[in-house]
Write a structure and sequence with these properties.
- It is built from 10 helices and 12 strands.
- The protein has 2 domains: 4-199, Alpha-Beta Complex (inorganic pyrophosphatase (n-terminal core)), CATH 3.90.1640.10; 205-326, Diaminopimelate Epimerase, Chain A, domain 1 (Roll).
- The strands form 2 sheets. It has a 6-stranded parallel beta sheet with strand order 3-2-1-4-5-6, covered by helices on one side. Strands 7-8-9-10-12-11 form a 6-stranded mixed beta sheet.
- The longest helix is centred in the N-terminal third of the chain and has 18 residues, at 4-21.
- It is 37% helix and 18% strand.
- By secondary structure, the protein is an alpha/beta fold.
Length: 331
Amino acid sequence: MMTPNKRKNDTLASICAVIENQERFLLTSHARPDGDAIGSQLAMAFALKQLNKQVRIINCDPTPDLYRTFPGVQDIEISATAKGNFDALVVMECSNLSRPGLQELQGNYTINIDHHLGNENYGDINWIDETAAACGEMVFDLIRFLGITITHDIATHLYLATLTDTGSFHYGNITARTFEMCRQLVEAGVNPSSIARKIFDSGTRGRLKLVGAILNKMDLEASDRLAVIYLNDEIMNDTGGSEDDLEGLVNIPLSAEVVQAVAFFKDFKGQPLRVSLRSKGDIDVRAIAVTYGGGGHANAAGFTSDVPIEAVRKTLISKITATLDNNSPDS
């Protein structure tokens, strides 16, 4: 029987063979990119450029303001189509080829790199590592396998990816492997406190007012174990906030000891309802998101829905409450 390490090394060898034998690469990730998507793409791009490869990054949505000062972000193209000529497509953090939101992705030689449960294995090479703390952790392994030097720019983006996708080292799948990688990134010149300040202490006035408005309208359900927060056009307009200000807001109610799970409803006119879920410990919100066609991690998941918010709210609160009850020490 093939061991996990043997399977991983065989997959990495296959990816490296493609990289060595091809010249033109297109990198992409999911719509509304987060820190892991941006960091993983740019770390991979800097690594490929060390090998004198031609690299383009195309995303369907702009990079959030929070990350625009990081190196290489200005080179990311925004388009609805994966246009141009390239030898291989590298898709990161996407369970299927619809997640990037780009047209004309099908039919290309595809390397699929993901750390989420439920990946559809749509690539010619599929590297799925559900034990990784972030996609950036996988990119680090690939870069080391390629024998590429971890430069300051590469290290910066790998640390960005890991710091954000673990919720500042709050979520599951953080292992000795994660901290060994971070140790090497610091050795390569990363300043952890500087990056943390850029991400967590550089918010706008609109974000500050947005936090106040959202918490003011928060509902506590299931004996205060579930926090339900809302955002709509009215709140956004009243506070002067923007989509870029939403990063990390869903985690704020978890700072209360009693709160074990959070449901964040984003209900904007002309758009599907978006729901983000977060939790602590053994509360598996991914299993709940899957019932609505979504996915993610056990402690960080989400989904979209065309059903009116009140209907989704009722069933979702019921499902999360049942999960909380089943994980209660008294159950």
